[in-house]
Every structure is written in structure tokens, then in C-alpha cells.
Amino acid sequence: MTGGGRRLTWQLLRLGHAAHHGAEAGRTRFAALLLASAVLALTFCSFVLASATWDGRAERGAARTPALAESGEQAKALWSRYWDSYEGRQFTVVVIAPLEDDAPLPPGVGHWPAPGEVLLSPALAEAPRAEGFAQRYGKAAGRVGGEGLASPGERLAYVRPTADMLRTADLEKITGYGGHWIPFGDLRVVGEETAMWALLAVLLGLPALALVVAAARTGAAGRDRRDALLDALGAGRGARLCVDLGGAVLPVTLGTLLAGAVLAPALLSDVRLPWIGYTLAAADVRAAIVPVTAAMVLAALTTLGLVLLLRPAPARRPGTRSNRPTSAQAGPLKLLALGAFPIFVIMAVFSGPLLGGAQRSAIAYLFAVAGVWATLPWVLGWGAGRWSAKAAGPARRRGDPALLIAVRTTAARPAAVVRLVAVLVVAIGVLGQAQILSSLLSVMPGHERTPGPAAESAALVRSAHQGELPRAFRSSLPRTARVVALGRLGEGPEAVRVMQAPCSDLSLLDLPCPPRGKQRQVTLGDLERRIQGAGPGPAGEPVLVRPGPVEPLTEGEGLQALVFEPGGSRLDLPAVKRAAHLHLSAKAGVQGLRESAEQPSELSHQSRWIPFLAALGAVILLLAMAIAATAQFLRLARALAPLNVLTGDRRVFHRTAAWSLGAPLCAAGVVGVGVHLVLVQPVTGGAYGGEVSWPLLAAMLAGTALTALVAALVGGSVAARRAASWVPRPD
């Protein structure tokens, strides 16, 4: 580029900045672009941080995975693990014992705990005292460092058992860490990274793009007139793009810097996300500083690109060389959206059969759904333009000025409808998909959750302990707690459940007590609901009840017992767990019936990301809706102001606002809900399908009607006030 060309480009950029800053709604557009670019930059960075978190967890998890001793290798330590639970979530307890003085320490462990001591992760060490983690596995002697945790909020414990308890469990011989064994801790339940990307794209990406679109077209009427004037003066497309770019560079740059300032604290220390409680590791953020910076630059370029792409190119009359501007033609983005919409719908409805189900189908489905909601506003705008062109004649014959003005305006500028309804349509899509995804993740195949009060009154204990129940275990239980041994006779379909305990304990469960050496087959009835899922054997079948000591009943297996509180009172579960870990076995498992392993507690816990991201998306959409509504109110007020002189009837402003603002919003809400019902058909129904929330759909329709009413009232009032003070002025 020559020196003169660079000077001209610089002058055009300065002209664009001055023109946009001093234009009608200039300050509103500046603030909107600043906010939109910041939100888009944070959204892009969320993808990078998700990948960095996955990589960081995998790296730390691999470093702490034990290396099993091969044949002929000298073992350095004994190692094993089992799971415990807290607040409905499972976590790993590692049982470890050094065999030599120079045994390597696990990552995050600064010293070997003494026998009978335990090291806790911060999440367990800071848990409520009622959980008893400081004494549950032994005496707390320190904390696990961050380098030994998959994430800062991971729940993990390293237990060094006493010599007596060490003999109660089978442990693996290891030589060190960094092996290729099965991962443990949070890594065993981490989902696919692509699934999180899909959620981010649907629940954050779409709202962020809607916000950018709303901001880019704020003050569009004045900018379009300026483009038409520049075109009439002979300015080429490049010159007009420079002018538009000049008006957007400063707010977009400031918005990107604002996003960087928001992320800066995450570089310095771990950040705990609100509500969901996940802690973002500062080490992972620092490791991704280069990709984060690139994501912010890409977000800024994307915002600028959308600003330039969302400007209609003034068309010339066919066959002429006139510079006189005419109505804008369909831009490339509109044509692309109209062509892609049916493809996305077909892909969403048939993604399962086309891709064979499983994960590929799920990712394709979410991608197609995002495409449908992204292109639907253009389809609505195109449909509104076609309908308005046909409705102008009947409105003129009926002599309805409000309807005539509305349909003429819509026919001439269908993009205004797109800007108005885009946010509402995306909001319906985000809320609807969040609900259906939560419904899918809450499905529990073949399992019925134990009722609340009953679930809190009993716990299942599994241990390798052989022989009669130790006296120390009984004395450590809550004073009123009782124990019944569980087992089975036979194998396979012929297996029968057995319950055995002293008669005094059996009677507290309303069970009969046969004579010693005898057994009686009974149906548990209401008791079945209380102990549902507890013990071996087919649930719901008759049970053999017999008196006797609490001891292992199933041949070749350890002790399985039910600890319960008489009368359905709440059981002190932490006390039961402490008694089992200290007096039964180093790897004893205690499971409250609410914590049944068949219940997908981890999946339910992970699904909390859906409402969290949906809430963030809803906030972004509210911002976009406010920006779009403000721009539309200003445009409507400016366009209708001269009517005060022509009609003298201020009611025409409210009726025009109802047709221009209220009617498109109502139509978009109804169409959006209908499209949502079509899109969820592949993932609803059947044993494992989600369920549509009809109350949510009704609430969305009611919210749409309320939004349309408020928009019509506010738009009409703003236009009426603007008309009262309107005077002719040069355009």
C-alpha cells in the first residue's frame, strides 16, 4: 500500500470513529459493542480453559497413578483404593503403606503419615465437623498438596493403616508412580471433553453471538443511510468497510481488554466458580496463557467480522450505472442462513439413524440444534418480509394506518425483525435444550430411588472381615443402632436372600424369629422399600430369616450387613463409617441407602453444569434483548415522529408499535416453541429418553406474551414522546 493509500485508510478509520460516535444511538452502540466483545472473548476463552483443565487433570492424574511391581522387581510400598461418599458424591480413599525407608511419596504428599494417620485434600479437611473426616480413617496429620489433586476441589484421602488393619485388606505392590494403571479419583468419572464443548457452544456460544449481532446492528438505520450516501458519492466497498471498521475498533478493543482483566485473577490463584463449586486451577490457566490470548484476539476479530458482515450492501438498479441507492438486497449471511436452516433441521431429527447413535450422534445432534437456533431468526425475518409485502394491500384498503406502516416497514427492512426476534428465539432454544439435557441426565435405568426418610435410617456395610462381628465395631456404633447380616444361598436365578441376626434385632425390623436352627421364608412388604438395593440377591423376592450371630453368610465372601436405626430414625452415617474403617477392614465400604451405587450421583453432579451455563446464557440473552429493544425503540421513535404532524392522533404510535414490535415477538415465541418440540423428538420417549417440561413451555409462551406487551407499550410511549418534540431537520 502506498503512502497515499495508507493516509486515506487512516482518514476513513478516523471518519468512521467520529461518525459513529456522534451518530444517533452512538453511545448506546459503543457500550453495546464493548460489552458484546467482552462476553464473546470470555466465551471463546471458556473453550480454551476447558481444554486446559482436561489436560491438566489428565497430567496430574497420570503422575499419581501407581506403577505396579512386575515380577522380580523390588516393591517399595503397598497400595490400594476404595470409595467413600460425601453429599451424594463418591470420592477415592487410597490405602498406602511404605515397605522401605526410601519409598517414594505420592505427588502432593510431603511426608509419610504414621500408622493410623491420614492425609486429607482441602475439600475434605474443610468439610463440616459433623462428617468426621478428621477421625473417620484415622488421625488427620496433614493435607494433600495441589500437585497431587486432579483439581483443587477434588476429594481425596491417603490413609496409612495400622499393622493390624493392614492385614485385613489385599493391597497391590508398587514401585512408584506414573504408571499406566486405571486412574482414580475424579478422573474415573470425568466425561468427554467434546461434551463440554458442545454444552459451551449451545448454552454460551449462541447467546454470545446473539449479543454481538444485537450490538452490531444497534443504530443500523443511521449507519445504513450513511453507507448509502457514501455509495452515492462513489465510495467503493472497501472505503465503506473502513468507515464501519473505524467505528467498531475502539469499543471492541476495550471490550477484549475488559475480558482480559476479568480473567487476570485466575492467573494468580485458584478461582472457585459460584453455585456449582468447581475450582479452576491457576496452574492450568497459566499453562494456557498463549491459547487464551489467541482466543481473545480471535474473539475480537470475530466481532469485527460480524460488524462488517451484518451491513447490507446497497444494490444498484439492474442494467444501470447509477449511484442512486435502492433497497438493500439479501446479504450473504441471510442467504447462507436460509439455505442452512432446513439442513440443520434434518440433521437434528435424523442424526441418530444417520450416525449410528452413541457419542457421534449426540455431538452431531447438539451441533445441528445450535445451527437451527442460529438460523431461525433469519427464516422468521424472511417470512415476515414475504407476509408483509402481501399484507400491505389489504391494510391500505381497510384504511388502517398503523398496520400499513408496520407492514411497509417490515417489507422494506426485514432485517429489523431478525434483530428483534433473534434474542428471544435463542433464549427459547437455550432454556429448552438445558431442560431436556437435564432430563436426559436424570434418567436412571431400572432403578427406583429409596424414599427420603427410609433412605436415611440404614446403611449397607461390606467388608473382607471373616468371623463374627467384632465387639469394637459394635461399641463404636451409635448407641441405638442395630446390625443384621445379609447374604444369599445359591447362585444365579435360584439365589435366595438371607437375613440373620439375634432375635431382638430382627424384631425391631418387624421380622419373625424362628427357633434356633430353623429359618422362615417371609415377604418383606413395606420393609422392602426401606432396604431396597441392600444386600445380595434379587430384590422383591422372599427372604429367608433366621436367628444367629452377625457374620458372613455368603460362601467365599466377606461380611455384608445392614446397620439400621429402629423405627426409621436417622442413622449417624459418619459414625458408622468411622467404626467400619477402624475396626472391620482397611477397605470397608459403608453405603447409605441414599448413596446406592446404582444411582448416578456423579452424573447428576456433573449435570449441574447445564443449569449453570444456561443461567449465564440467559443473563447474556437479557443483555442482548435490552440492547436490541433499545435500538428498536430508538429506530421506531425516529421513524414515527413525523406522523404526529400528519395524523394528530397519538394512538397510532401505540398501534404501530403493537404491529411492529409486539406481533413479531409473539409470532417468534410460538414458532420457537414449535421448533423446540420438533427438535426434541429424537431424544424424548422410550425407557431412557428425556421428558418435555410442559410447564416450562407454558412459561416461555407466557414470558413471550409479556415481553411483547412490554415492548409494544414502551415502544409506543417512546415514539409518542419523541413525536411531541419533533421538528423538521436536515437528514
TrEMBL record:
* Entry superkingdom: Bacteria
Q: Which residues cross the membrane?
A: 30-50, 195-216, 245-268, 288-310, 331-350, 362-380, 416-437, 609-636, 657-680, 692-714
Which controlled-vocabulary keywords does the entry list? Membrane, Transmembrane, Transmembrane helix
Protein name, as recorded: ABC transporter permease
This chain's source organism reads Streptomyces alfalfae
